[in-house]
Amino acid sequence: MVDVRRVKLPGVGVLHTFYTSDGGKVGVIAHRSGHSDLITFADDDDGPDVNKVSLRLSEDEAHTLAELLGGTQITESLTALDQIPGLSIDWFTVDYEDHIAGQPLGSPAERGIAGLTVVAVVRGESTNPAPAPDFKVFPGDTLVVAGSPEKVAKAFNFFRTGTAKPKVAVDGPPGN
Asked: For position 137, what pLDDT does the model report?
């Protein structure tokens, strides 16, 4: 059986890699957006003349390739392991214009989002697990959160705008 290594890429998705019997390294980046990248790696001692391949595949193309290679059941089984009913684990990368940039993280419950947990803040190459409410968030940080899909959406809205409630357009007569 092939040893597949999985690495979560905050804000991107999951990288799956394995070595082939002839020493090659193959990887698939499964993006959160649904598309995948099929890539090959070269060892440092392969020299500068080695060919590297990277292909961007849509979700349908990735499924088709998996079926052609005979791995659909394995791929779907691995994906099912990441799915727990009612729980969403997601990443939010902080931009300069986001409300949370430069602010302390605070408590999700105090911000109207009880039942949400900030699991970690990734800053560069370091991870800050279970950050305290006074942990200051900066642009470029990635917040890893866990909660129901609705609460994750509320948290992301708060991180962007400063309010946990999404703005809803109300249709009404002009002037109201």
From this structure: 95
